[in-house]
DNA sequence: CTAGGGTTAG
């Protein structure tokens, strides 16, 4: 801007400032300010200049000038305060608020409408309440809906919904903003039904919802999986013409996926002309929640191809997709993207990475990520603990548990699930019992079925069967899973009589429980009681019960290969059998003896051996060894059931003769086979 | 010359 040196009258100054605002140039305002100061007119233009600075985003420069002025208009105070709030300079905004009161300038309705947000952002409930009191004295609380809704928002953010409601009820003319603030407050504090009630009363009161209201109320519908209302509101959105507003569309998408209608979410998504980052992320999250992890990854790639950069939200969700189905290779690629965006140390991404590596059996890698997280929280620590628990590292898990307490973090119910599994898998029976006892006493944790299940497993596995039974008796409505886990403990310890007694209990509770039948036939088979096995199998057939077939899968070069016992559908079955034969010879030569007690059919020894031969994990391992070179130092397999004793023993030998690490995740935990032994110490 | 509410994560 060229400043004229001749014309220095007030009218010129005003128009110069206006020009600066139009061009959003802070440096130009500075020049104008210098010129005004030279001409001695500053006092008259102070407020105008500040207005100019603020409109151009120059909060710091505005403040500098503001402090030099001897007197400022109330409007200028208010502009300063709201601009500081808007620029997240909360402390300074509150400082200005206090300063104005000290200087005898009373806050007005404009001041209050901005300053309450400052208190909620600072987390200063007390100060907020004091300011609230002041607004009542000045008669501005109920008479001005801007002040009222700012207050409702503040109390909502503090979770003080009673106070939020009280203020809302006192406001004379309630509008859509006030109602929306109340709806959001309720829904963000788990009172979604209350949120819906507010919405209904708003509509009945003749106040029309807008895009903000729709966005918020749909979240409430999703949270309580209230599809009926969700659909009604979808209709209302169309009627009110907000169909193409991104935020309400995004909430609509989320609502459908939370209600399990992922196809409807996809339909909503298709109508977006230009989906933004939040929309893409919502879709990805929905897909993961609905078990469509692979689609989630495809969508993620599509998103990045459309040059939309992921943020921590997106990346942590994509990582969840990878960890929930243990896609380690994909996960590693996402990890690289996380690093590229500098989010390795982010609490959410960090926790998701820990979860990924933990669920893939790489506890060391999980720990490396974990140690880099800047701000640890309960979830990230739970993930680390769970990883230790699954891999049988009980002491490390307990160490983490203690560190959590040292950090002053409140352990939650998931924490205890991990800790108890850790104790169970590492055989830390006494420790587990003590921790279990302390949960309610010292941590005020509500005991869930999961906790009881962990304890039954812990006691049962270590042979304390009666204690385990007594514990189940204490549960109000013990479910089949608890009893079943006790029966499987009986199987491990060969307690046939007890198993039968418990079976009768279970079948009274759930007559057709297939798991129980399977377990019983297992215990009969392992003790050679074939007539009982046949009887059980007949009963099962008559009741049309089918057990889940054992399956093992292995991920090689991002392709998942699934194997079932004795199935030869794999295109490479010829190579698999050859590899298997060769392996068998090699492991037998170093001491492996097939253990046919794990064959649960009444067959001749020779045939039993063949049965063992073709267990799904053996097929998967043979395939993996055939497909990968010796340079691949470790092989990862996954199994839907628990590993059988013979396979466990066999894999130990295999790991020795091929000199590779074999990591196996079964339905209960990880086994790391290396150089002839397993990380579980044969206790599982 | 100034003011209030909304969309994505374990």
TrEMBL record:
Residues 591-684 form the DYW domain. InterPro entries: DYW_dom, E2_motif, E_motif, PPR_At4g14850-like_plant, PPR_rpt, TPR-like_helical_dom_sf. PPR repeats lie at residues 73-107, 175-209, 276-310, 377-411. GO terms for molecular function: RNA binding; zinc ion binding. One of its GO terms (biological process) is RNA modification. SUPFAM superfamilies: TPR-like. Keywords: Repeat. It comes from the Eukaryota. Belongs to the PPR family. PCMP-H subfamily. NCBIfam families: PPR. PANTHER family: PENTATRICOPEPTIDE REPEAT-CONTAINING PROTEIN, TETRATRICOPEPTIDE-LIKE HELICAL DOMAIN-CONTAINING PROTEIN-RELATED. This is DYW domain-containing protein. It comes from Acer negundo. The lineage of its organism: Eukaryota, Viridiplantae, Streptophyta, Embryophyta, Tracheophyta.
